[in-house]
Every structure is written in C-alpha cells, then in structure tokens.
Amino acid sequence: MAYALQQLINGVALGMIYGLIAVGYTMVYGIIGMINFAHGDIFMVGAFISLISFVLISSGGWAAGPGAILLVLLVSMAVTALYGWSVERVAYRPLRGSFRLAPLISAIGMSIVLQNYVQVAQGARVKPMESIVTGGVELWHGNGFAVSISTMQAMIVIVTLVVLAVFTWLVTRTPLGRAMRACEQDRKMAGLLGIDTDRTISITFVIGAALAAVAGTMYLLRYGVIDFYIGFLAGVKAFTAAVLGGIGSLPGAVLGGLLIGLIETFWSAYFSVQYKDVATFAILVITLIFMPTGLLGRAEVEKV
Amino acid sequence: MSAALQNRAPSAAMLRLEGVTAAYGAVEALRDVSVHVDPGEIVTLIGANGAGKSTLLMTIFGSPRARTGRILFEGRDITGMPMHEIARAGIAQSPEGRRIFPRMTVRENLLMGAQSFGVDPAPGLEQAFTLFPRLKEREAQRGGTLSGGEQQMLAIARALMSKPRLLLLDEPSLGLAPLVVRGIFSAIRRLNAETGLTVLLVEQNANQALRLAHRGYVLVNGRTTLEGTGAELLARPEVRDAYLGTH
C-alpha cells in the first residue's frame, strides 16, 4: 500500500512533465493539423537554456534559491519561445498550402537540425547539474516503508498546475485564445473575420515552446543530467500522451501525460524497468484499438 | 499622372471589380467580370448553381485570387492584399455554407466578428439579439448544435458585428422558412435605409432578391450577361424564364 502510494506520487510528477510537452503537440495539431516532430527537441533546447542560465547565475555568485529558479524559468520560456517561433517561420510557414506530408518531413528535418546544433554548440557529452532543490516531506510511515514527497516533486506538480491554469484561462477566456480556437475550427472563416491567421499560428508555436521550456527546466532540476538527445524519447512519450488523450484535446494531453507517467512508473516498480517503454506503447495500441480518437478526442463528424 | 490618382476609381463606387478572372486550379470560375457597387446600394448577383456567384464574393477576399483584373474598395486597390486586411478595410461576409465555428457558443461566434476591429462588441450584440431574438435564447449554446436557419441568422449577425461599410451576403435565404426569410430581407432593407449599409447579395431566390435590390447582375458560367435595376431585370423575359420560374 505504502509502496503503491509512493509510486503514485512518482508517477504523477513524471506525468506532469509529459503533459506539459504533450500540450504543445496537441495545440499545433489542432491548429494546423500537423505533428510537430521537432517539439521534443524544443523541450531539449529549453532544458539546455535553463542549464546555461543556472551556470551563468551561479558564476555571477547568486545563490540558487527560489528567485533564481523563477528567473531561469522565465528566461528559458522566453528564449525557447523564440526557437519555437523560428522553427515555424523557417520550416513550416513556407510550406503552408503545400501537400500534407511536406511540413511533416520538414519537421523531422528541423528535429535533426536542432539536435545537431546543440550537439555542436554544447558538445555531445552528458551535462550534469548538481541538484539545488533538495529535501522533502515524509507523509506516512507504514510497514517499514516511508511514503514521501520530495520538494522537487511538489514543485513540479505546483508549477505545472499553475502554468496549465494560466494557459487554460488564456485559451478559454481571452480574445487571443478565441482566435486560436477559431483558427482551429475554420481558418478561412477566421481570416474573413479579420484574424491574422499566420500570426495566430505563430503565437501557438510560441506558447507550445514556452510550455516545453517549463518541462525542460523541471526535467533538468529533477534528473540533473541532460544531453542533446533527451528530446527524442521525451518527445515520443509526450506525443504518445497526446494521442492517448485524444490529439487536439488540451485536457486530453494532460490526462494522457499523467497516464503515461503512471503506467511507466508502476510498470517499473512492479515488473521490469527494461520493458517500461514497451508497456507504455502497448497500452497506447490497446487504447487506440478500442477508442481510435483517444480518451477525450472527438470523432471528426460535424453537423453541416 | 501620379499613382494615387490612377488608383482612384473612375467613379466613386464603393466596390469595383475590373475584368476579374479567377479559377480553382484549371477550372475557370470567373471570366473577365466587371461589377460595381455604389455607396448605399443593395446590389444582387443572381444566377444558377455553379455560375460563380460565391466565387465572386470569395475573390473579393482573395481566395481564390484574382488572376487578372483588379478589385478596388473605396478607391483603394485590394487585389492581393491578405484576407484579414481586406476584412479590416471594412468588408464583412456571411459566406456560403455559413461557416459557424461549431465548438464555440453563439456568443463567442458573435464576439469573433468584432474582436479584430477594435470596436466595442456590446452594441453589436444588442443589435444581433434585437434582429434575431432566437440567437438570444441560444446565446450559450454551441454553434454546431444550431439548426440551419439559426446558423444562418448567426452568420449574418456575426458579419454585422464589425460595423462593416460593405456587407457581402451569400444566400441568406438558404434553408430558412419563408417567414424567417422575409424577416431577414426586411432587416437588410432596414439596415440599408437606416445606417446606409452597402450590400452585395448573392441569391438563388431571384424574385425576392431583385425586389429588394436597387440593381442586379445576372451571372452565367462565370460571366455577367445582364445588368440593370431590380425592376428592369424582373421584367426581362430571359430572367423570368431562367430564374423566376414564372409561366
């Protein structure tokens, strides 16, 4: 029981990170109907920018407290957003109106470009960072097993919830969010109503990248090691989360992320760590057989 | 002569299409069409299905693009301008198929009509609900769940939200009960008379459209074949035979 509870805590913290990345996949899919394969690498870029910011801050003699973490988070979000904007501008916008596979291929190209760019600029070796968020709270002590939540895990959960709350408010309650939903539902009509659809799509990439930067920062703080290749597996997992939750659905992306995090954690805890990815993808396959549109996705049938 | 002077239309037409040709791929939909709408006018385009009426309205917004000719709005060349800038210049459209945002509420659909124009949405909402009280009842309902007639009302009301100077209406009578059609036509007449709203109306319902309009054009296979006042066109035998179904 205690052991299971501990796994639940671990799984939720991991799942939040996947969920943050998955939102970026699902948003871009919703608005332009393409899978942005470079999104995982945007997450990786976000993690690197955070690492560089931390190094700069500590070399400036600043103590690594909550203020420093917040500053790093904001810097990383801003710079990573710029990457997200550039990727769309350079690799996807010129292909709009081209055949459907063109931006997909371009996205794979962008993914390779980003990986190699970071590899060349930062080196191929694994980059460690000492953990600055330490400690935790013991919640319960039973059967000789202590259930605890680390400060880091609590921080991931809180930061993610705050970011997602702001993001949900933005999409559902503001004119900008309304314009994004309009572009998703009928882009030409949005244009007829004076919406600059190219700009709206750009903003979608910017927001998605900023969320991925939050995920990257949390990942860096939690695991303490990153390299130029972390975007691949994280990206595939988050993409899986988006599909599992129902691609195009924002709550679905978060739900899918949580489920993937939980499945992975519980499988590792009770069965074998080696096969955790197999378990994750097997459950994806099974879900899609019975619910082809994912858990919260909707069938593409509309009243005309 | 300076470019500015050349850009002035020969007359003070609000909208002027000069020799416009447009196509979907290899299929020509408009061939050398010249049409104009003066300020304060209601002009109707009538013609059979596939004659190019809806294409003409969309070509004004640059989709499909005019391959030849040019389009002037208030003396300004808008050919090739981005769609959202054409809308912001003061043209609104209630398009073919209504194109209601299906997963937005009626209220959100209406707000979409105003938000890019820097206008206060409150008077627009009030006008919409006065014009179509049904929309008020459905305010919080999703667009996709409305009936065809309600969607049509919403499409028109949404187009009016931006306080356009020129309104393009594509088949506002489609799928509506005769009583509702009458309501919509009288609303158009009233807006035109009271606010000076200029209207370009595409209709299959030629009889009613020609009675409402000051002038009309007949479009056949992408070409304008006839032009005249509503009464003139109503009296033409070829119009009566082809579009009015009178015997």
Automatic annotation (TrEMBL), chain A:
Q: Which Pfam families match?
A: BPD_transp_2
Q: Which residues cross the membrane?
A: 12-35, 42-62, 68-87, 99-118, 145-171, 201-222, 279-297
Q: Name one GO biological process term.
A: L-isoleucine import across plasma membrane
Q: Listed GO molecular functions? A: L-isoleucine transmembrane transporter activity; L-leucine transmembrane transporter activity; L-phenylalanine transmembrane transporter activity; L-valine transmembrane transporter activity
| Localisation | Cell membrane
Q: Does the keyword Membrane apply?
A: yes
The membrane-topology field of this record reads: Multi-pass membrane protein
Q: What is its main location?
A: membrane
**Which controlled-vocabulary keywords does the entry list?**
Amino-acid transport, Cell inner membrane, Cell membrane, Membrane, Transmembrane, Transmembrane helix, Transport
**CDD domains for the chain:** TM_PBP1_LivH_like
Which Gene Ontology cellular-component terms appear in the entry?
plasma membrane
Family, per entry: Belongs to the binding-protein-dependent transport system permease family. LivHM subfamily.
Name by which UniProt lists this protein:
Branched-chain amino acid transport system permease protein
From TrEMBL, chain B:
Q: Which organism is it from?
A: Muricoccus pecuniae
Q: Which CDD domains match?
A: ABC_TM1139_LivF_branched (cd03224)
Q: Which SUPFAM superfamilies match?
A: P-loop containing nucleoside triphosphate hydrolases
Q: Name one GO biological process term.
A: L-amino acid transport
Signal sequence annotation? none
Q: Does the UniProt entry include the keyword Nucleotide-binding?
A: yes
* Gene3D superfamilies the UniProt entry points to: P-loop containing nucleotide triphosphate hydrolases
Q: Which GO terms describe its molecular function?
A: ATP binding; ATP hydrolysis activity; branched-chain amino acid transmembrane transporter activity
Biological classification of the source: Bacteria, Pseudomonadati, Pseudomonadota, Alphaproteobacteria, Acetobacterales
What protein family does this chain belong to?
Answer: Belongs to the ABC transporter superfamily.
Any Pfam family the entry gives: ABC_tran
Q: Where is the ABC transporter domain?
A: 15-246
Task: Report the SMART domains cross-referenced here.
Answer: AAA
Q: What keywords were assigned to this record?
A: Amino-acid transport, ATP-binding, Nucleotide-binding, Transport
Record protein name field: Branched-chain amino acid transport system ATP-binding protein
Q: Which domain of life is it from?
A: Bacteria
